[in-house]
Each structure stands twice: as C-alpha cells, then as structure tokens.
Amino acid sequence: MIKEEKMGGPYTKKEQETRRNQIFELHFQQGYSAVSIAKTLGVNRNTVNKDIEFLFSEIRNDKSPNHKNQLDKQVIKLDYQKTRLQKELDKDISIKERIQIEKMISDADLRIAAFFVKLVTTRRHNHLG
C-alpha cells in the first residue's frame, strides 16, 4: 500500500476511487479496522468510516458488482476453509490440536456472520435515517 501524504479532503474523484479500493481490500479482504486503515493510508478515520459505509451501501444495492463478486469469493473461501478444517477434526489428533482447529472454524464463522450483520444493520440504519 502507498501511504498518501494528504491528511484531508477535498479529494478528486480519482483519489476517492483509489482510496475506496484500498479501503475495500484492507477492510473487507484483510480484516483491518478503520483505525488501522487510517494509519496505513494516512487519512482521517472518519473518512475511512464513511468510505466503509459507502462500500456497504454499494454492495447491498448491487451498485458495485466487482466488490460484491470479490466478497462472494471471500465468503466461499472461508466456507471452504471451514470444510477442510472440519475434516481435520475427524482425524485422531490431540486435544490441543482439536481446540486450535475449532477456534479457526469459529473465527471463520464469526467473520462471515459479522459481515452479514453489518450489511443488515447498515441497511436498517439507512432506512431509518
């Protein structure tokens, strides 16, 4: 990631699009928090939060098929990972290994659930506001 020098708007349309793509990758694909993204990109945390809300809105309203497609792939990847981990639980493994695998499965479930909860919560918030 390239750290931007600028610490505030106004941003050009191109700068905004580039920043939102970077935020999409960091937040949705790599799981970074808004604070971490703001530090990484050198932008205001409120800008990052607004961009995340914008991206959720775009995904929810199918206005960004590329981002939605990438998220679909991410969910499929997490689900596939869970399936592979479940198969490992069928093997003769130590309790320590079993707990580690169960934690990884739980983490994958939580990541998937958190995304959908945020999507529904954002939708509900936008309809009420």
- Which structural class do you get from the secondary structure elements? mainly alpha
Number of domains: 1
* Chain-averaged pLDDT: 82
| Helix coverage percent | over 70%
| Portion in strands | under 5%
Number of helices: 5
Quick one: overall form? elongated
Number of strands: 0
Instruction: Kindly provide the radius of gyration, computed on alpha-carbon positions and rounded to a whole number of angstroms.
Output: 18 Å
SSE string, helices as H and strands as E: HHHHH
How would you characterize the largest beta sheet?
none
CA distance, first residue to last residue: 34 Å
Low-confidence stretches: none
Report on this structure.
The protein has one domain. It starts with 12 loop residues before the first helix and ends with a helix. It has 129 residues and is an all-alpha fold.
Short description:
This protein is 78% helix and 0% strand. Helix 4 (65-89) runs antiparallel to helix 5. It has one domain (13-128).
